[in-house]
Amino acid sequence: MTTTNTLDGRIILIVEDEYFIAADLRRALQSRGAEVLGPVSNLRDGLRLCEAEQLDAAILDVNLDGVLSFPIADRLAERAVPWTFLTGYDDWALPDAYRVVPRVAKPFRSDMILSAMERLLHSGDAA
Amino acid sequence: MATQAEGSVGGNVVQAINRIFSEALSARTEEQLCQLVLSVAEDVTGASYSLMGEINQATDRLDNLAISARGLQIFADHDATFTTDFMPAGFVLRGLFGAVLNEGESLIANDPANHPERGGAPDRHPPIDNFLGVPLTRGGRTIGMIGLANRPGGFREWDRDAIEEMAPAIVQALFSKRAEEALRTSEVRYRTLFERMGQGYLEGQILRDVEGRAVDFRLLELNPVFERLLRIPVDEAIGRPIREVLPDVEEFWIETYDRIVRQGVNSWFEHEGLLSSKWLQVHVYPHSDDRFVALYEDVSERRRADRALRDNRQRLRSVLEGIPQLVWIAGERGEWTWVGPQWMSFTGLSMEASLGLGWLDALHPDDRAGARDFWQEAGNRGALEMEGRVWHAREGRYRWVQTRARPVRDDAGAIVEWFGTSTDIDDLRRLQERQQLLVAELQHRVRNILTIVRSVFSRTIEAGGPLEEISDHFKGRLDALARTQVVVTNSVSGLVDLENMIRDELLSVGVNEGPGVEIEGPDVALPARAAESLGLAIHELTTNAVKYGALKVPGARLTIRWTANLLYDGKKRLVLQWVEQGVPALPVKPSRQGFGTELIEEALPYRLGAETALEFRGGGVRCTIAVVLPAEETAIVGWRDE
Description:
Chain A: Residues 11-121 form the Response regulatory domain. The structure holds two protein chains of two kinds. Chain A is α/β, with parallel strands linked by helices. Helix content of chain A is 36%, strand content 22%. Chain A contains four helices and seven strands; from the N terminus they run βαβαβββαββα. Chain B is of the alpha+beta class. Chain B folds into four domains: 2-184, GAF domain (Beta-Lactamase, 2-Layer Sandwich), CATH 3.30.450.40; 199-303, Beta-Lactamase; 323-424, PAS domain (Beta-Lactamase), CATH 3.30.450; 476-629, Histidine kinase-like ATPase, C-terminal domain (Heat Shock Protein 90), CATH 3.30.565. In chain B, a hairpin with a 5-residue loop joins strand 11 and strand 12. Chains A and B meet through helix 1 and strand 5 of A and helix 15 and helix 19 of B.
């Protein structure tokens, strides 16, 4: 019941600068029936894609080759699109404003990212 | 009769006056003198007893100076309670005494009970049968009187005249006695002072040669202190020239006393006596005849204390000005009253500009309000501690400074002022920030690389094949990643040399540059992330060449060649070509996309924005990778310190 298409038809943006990590994320999301926007590796492309009309959720790497992805997070917050950070940083290394956001710590297993997305989208439905 | 009487009065009186002057001098006290005078007067007149009184100027009453010895006996005989412990005093100027004193004229009352001026004798007074009173005058004023009583047969005019003639001598004797006593008292007083005072007293007289030059001074008077001060016996020294007493006396003393004596002005100076090795404060009072009085005081202790205090102040000042902190003193509202030189050189603000609230000008505008607020409540807090930015003149920027201040309180505990220090913590803060950044970056990298390793591992397994082959593949990729990591973390810049990276990769499979292998290109320093991806790509190409291509087939050739062109904005465009030649059989293009292919065709473009081409064709693999390298890369990219 939970193993198949729990993310069926959901459009999820991936912003992650490491190709292999991005590819793994895409594969994992697609395996649950999600539609992936991206993945893109930099801030500019991320900001462009987060304006997409259809967008249900996003996974954001915090450090995009030295550039922080917070502007994308801010824009998503404005649009009320839920997202999760994917990061190798501990809490203390993040600015206060971004500490409360749900995060998935690197290195991760794909089931961790999937359940995180399910939680995000589920709470989004409830609201 | 009258002449005879006068002559007889004259002879007796002259004798009496002589007695008074000769014996008065031997009297020890004033009362004794008066008693002597009275006894002479009684002898001259034949009175039974007598007394002498003086008008007290303060009370305008008569105080007894003395009662004659006979009188005392008569008083005692008459009244058992009579005592000589004190002299009766305070008589109102009335009655017969009053008549004498008020009128200033002698009075004979041979029937006193019926005399018009009678006032009655005091209680327990022996009876007065007759009375002679003679005023004592001085400078035209009546100052007292002599009263004589009870001459058998009454007083005669002769008696009155005799006493009147004696009276001036009596007054003179009395006042000589007083002057002598006053002199003795003051002499005793001064002698005591002279001998016991802590100061040395020296009276001297400058001695001059024929040309008037001061060559010495004679010691006219010295007090005992000199035995201590100069270690010479006073009695031996008095009357002798100082050079004789003290052959090695410093010229200074003679010169100085001479100068003061010539100037004729009271002076004082302090001098460290070489002989006594004491600091002396000397007050000099010159007077006539080249004479002078000098008062010496040993001020060595005070000088030592002054010196210690000065040293202490000096030391404290050195510490205050030597410490690296900016030090200042402020009033209760934060208005500075003093500031050390450190602040001035740090901020470039002058002392005048900094005092009061002027120091606020050196604070970062955003920190000024906070600093002012702080002082509003400083009194309640009892200690100040804050961080803020202060303008640093030499660097032309604000630096972080930690400020602490402690109140200085008076005896009652009220805050008098604040003593503050400001410590430059800018470097510390920057280092802390940088350290935090480095740790964060390390976390990021380690966790990222682990994520990549996990990803590479699953892809390697997905490619399938015998376990041994999978294992070799994975180890090779892991080693390639590790090699790059080692170089990145070992180099200060975090940059990796492209040529070294390629040679290391080839070496890892035992291949050297040689006839079949050509490596050529300019120096290119790769940033870490480019090195990671390119390193892995070189590894995949090398592995493929070893298994299937130019590094397997004898006679085949491998050429690795690159160019780097500077772009207009300082970036570099790197074009790297991997060309295999002479590989006879067509290499087997994997049916499924392999890891290496995905890496070159997908990952490099994604990760580095590279343009890549990978061909498997006759003669061998041909791969082109073009990538734009940033103008300048450091270990930490995109993170700024400020």
